[in-house]
Amino acid sequence: MKKISLVITTINESNKNIKKLVKLSKKSHTELIIIGDKKTPKNFKISNGTYYSINDQKKINFDFSKVCPINSYARKNIGYLISIDNKNEVIIETDDDNYPKDNFLKHIKLTNKVNEIKNIGWVNVYKKFLNNNEDIWPRGLPLNEIKKIPIFKSKKVKKNFYLQQGVCEGNPDVDAIYRIINKKINIKFKDNYAFSSGKSFSPTNSQNTIWFKKLFPLMYLPVTCTMRTTDIWRGIIALNIILNDNLSILFFGTTMKQFRNVHNLTNDLEQEMPLYKDIFDGFNRLQNINLKKGSKNYFYNLLQSYDALIEMKIFDKKEIFFLKAWIKDIKKILD
Predict the structure, then answer these.
(1) Taking a C-beta distance cutoff of 8 angstroms, is the pair 209, 79 a contact?
(2) Cβ contacts of 295 within 8 Å, gap of 6 or more
(3) Residues 196, 219 contacting (CB under 8 angstroms)
(4) Coil, strand or helix: which one is 327?
(5) Rg for the chain (alpha carbons), in Å?
(6) Residues 254-260: what's their mean pLDDT?
(7) Helix 227-244 crosses helix 265-287 at what angle (to 10 degrees)?
(8) How far is CA 42 from CA 76, 78, 147, 231, in A?
(9) pLDDT tens-digit readout, 131-168
(10) Of 3, 6, 1, nearest to 256 (Cα)?
(11) Which of 141, 103, 102 is nearest to 124 (CA)?
């Protein structure tokens, strides 16, 4: 049986979502790691798992934990490093505004036999999780691609999926434009449903995401972009690298329901503007990089990818400093 961990960050008190995550992780013998930040209440406590305050994180012997800015979602990287150092083989991640269903930590498996998308290019995976023709799209999907409905191949495929992305019903991961247009959101996605991305392109996020050991190096959340874009860029960079190795993403639903924390939609829109502007051209640029095949080259491919996006001014040139700290830490753990 693989050793599994669950990583979240929070700046809030222990709410009903966190308490349910604590309960399920204890029941399933999953290691729970919660990363705090400057705004996290000083009296934050959980009955199972380990909470790491800012002071706790400073004491850890990781280069990245010493240089990561405070008040940054990228502090979640510290949780990944702790999990990897603790010899976990699978890392599941979510956020504190997602309520796990009872099946959240069940039936996690690398190999799946599923339908596969035959489109090559951007697709709107949310369309396959609906029983109607409702207009909805995942955060990070280029806006000129939201009408692209995935088409399945005639036969199912059996594959290893080292990256698996769950959709969250209720108030799912959509962008600020969608939320401004739709004031009341209560989406019901298909249950017990999964498919392979094939060679198509779709954003992934950090709300309900499963990573297997082979892809741990690609979990790095960039520091020098906005909080609303960091997990999207992380996913796009990872997607391009795994496509180079003929791997695909498994999309599945639904083991989570999101009860979204209070957000300022104007602020969200401002943070997401770089995605609308850069995601299409940025991914095209990534596709033109001469990547090397094989997981042994993931660190090289990461550096090449970030160099290209820094050249496009999508990230600040300081991003390489943070990325190299991450790479140094993981290499030290895995060697």
Answers:
(1) no
(2) 214, 215, 217, 245
(3) no
(4) helix
(5) 19
(6) 86
(7) 20
(8) 18, 19, 46, 27
(9) 887 899 999 999 999 999 999 999 999 999 999 999 99
(10) 6
(11) 141
Q: Which residues of 257-275 are buried (b: 16+ CB within 10 A; e: fewer)?
A: bbeeeeeeeeebbebbebb
Alpha carbon 215 to its chain's center: 12
How many residues in total does the chain contain? 335
Q: What tokens does 18 get?
A: 């966190």
Q: How far apart are CA 140 and CA 138, in angstroms?
A: 6
In 3D space, the residue among 284, 4, 315, 280 whose CA is nearest the CA of residue 140 turns out to be: 280
Token look-up 């449903």 returns 193
The single-letter code of the amino acid at 22 is V
Range with the lowest mean pLDDT among 27-41, 233-247, 250-264? 250-264
Report the alpha-carbon distance of residue 207 to residue 34 in Å, rounded: 14
Give strand ranges (E) for 98-192.
98-100, 111-116, 157-160, 163-170
CA 134/CA 249 separation, integer angstroms:
24
Cis amide leading into 254 (omega within 30): yes
Say how far apart CA 275 and CA 138 lie, in whole Å: 12
- CA–CA gap between residue 304 and residue 302 (Å, rounded): 5
> Which two structure tokens, joined as six digits, stand for 319?
């991003």
| Alpha-carbon dihedral 5, 10, 12, 14, rounded to 10 degrees | 0
- Residue 201's DSSP bridge partners are 122
**Paired residues of 52 in beta bridges:** 35
Segment 295-328, tens digit of pLDDT: 999 999 999 999 999 999 999 999 999 999 999 9
